[in-house]
Each structure stands twice: as structure tokens, then as C-alpha cells.
Design goal:
single chain; 155 residues; 5-stranded antiparallel β-sheet; 5 strands; 30% helix; elongated
Length: 155
């Protein structure tokens, strides 16, 4: 809608690239910690973008952005149903809600030997319950170096 832009540019005056960069910039700003505020979770940021489709953001580009990012992009910190904390290490386009998780904290949020769980496969925890993601977390809530874990996985 042109708010936040110099010269009050509106939809017809903005290129597709401007619209894409705007959404990516807002997503980054929402999910980044600031000195005065913790960043939003990925789900919360995507919901904000979704809610502003057609007003602040081009509705087609916003929808495509949400679909491409997926609800659990690489590096998202998640809590499993059993309280364990892990990092999303891989998602497939066919099963975006069932990513690979590198579990790094136990259900008491204490560090453990990291191990991978592929949620797209039928796997169960120690109690025989199937794994599922309960919620995502802001990484600053835990003392976890996300980049270190992601880089190790890529080696």
C-alpha cells in the first residue's frame, strides 16, 4: 500500500522485485531479535504476513512466499510433543509439516548428544508415542548455536 516507502509509492508503482524484497525484509525484521524486543517465531511472522496480504503486501507474492518458506524452514527451533527441543535440518516440498529434526535438548531442556529424527517416517519416542511438533520457539529462549548445528549437518 506504499506505507513505509519514500514518496508514498503504491502497488502499481512498485516492481515485482520491490514487492518480493519487501516481504523478505519484513519477515527478517519480524524474526530477528532487537535490543528492545525478541523476534517473532516463524509461525507468528508468517501469520502477520498472511494477515496483511492485499493491504501491505501483494497477495499473490505473499502467498507464494509463505508456501516457499514453509512453516518450519531450515534452522527453526521446535519443541516436540515430548518436550525435547530440536532444530529443523531438512524439509521436503511434499511433507513440509514433517521435517527432519536434530534433537539437541532433552525434555528438561538439558543438552544431549544430538540425534536426527525424520518426522516423515513413522518413528516413536521412548514411550512409544509418534513424534510431532508441538510448537516453535525463538532461539534466544535457549542457549543453542543454530548456525553451528546447521553447518555441522551440511558438512
Amino acid at each position: 500500500d506504499g506505507t513505509g516507502y519514500p514518496q508514498g509509492l503504491v502497488d502499481k508503482d512498485l516492481s515485482m522485485y520491490n514487492k518480493i524484497v519487501t516481504i523478505a525484509d519484513v519477515f527478517d525484521a519480524l524474526t530477528s531479535d532487537r535490543i528492545y524486543k525478541k523476534g517473532e517465531t516463524v509461525e507468528s511472522a508468517l501469520q502477520i504476513i498472511h494477515n496483511h496480504r492485499g493491504t501491505a503486501f501483494d497477495p499473490v507474492i505473499a502467498t507464494q512466499f509463505i508456501e516457499e518458506i514453509g512453516i518450519y524452514p531450515l534452522g527453526t527451533l521446535v519443541e516436540l510433543h515430548n518436550g525435547e527441543i530440536g532444530i529443523v535440518m531438512h524439509t521436503s516440498p511434499e511433507k513440509r509439516l514433517r521435517p527432519w529434526i536434530k534433537v539437541v535438548l532433552d525434555n528438561n531442556h538439558k543438552p544431549i548428544e544430538p540425534h536426527l529424527i525424520d518426522l516423515s517416517k513413522p518413528d516413536t519416542d521412548k514411550e512409544g508415542m509418534p513424534y510431532w511438533i508441538k510448537m516453535s520457539h525463538n532461539p534466544s529462549n535457549f542457549d543453542i548455536d543454530l548456525l553451528k548445528h546447521v553447518h555441522k549437518q551440511l558438512e
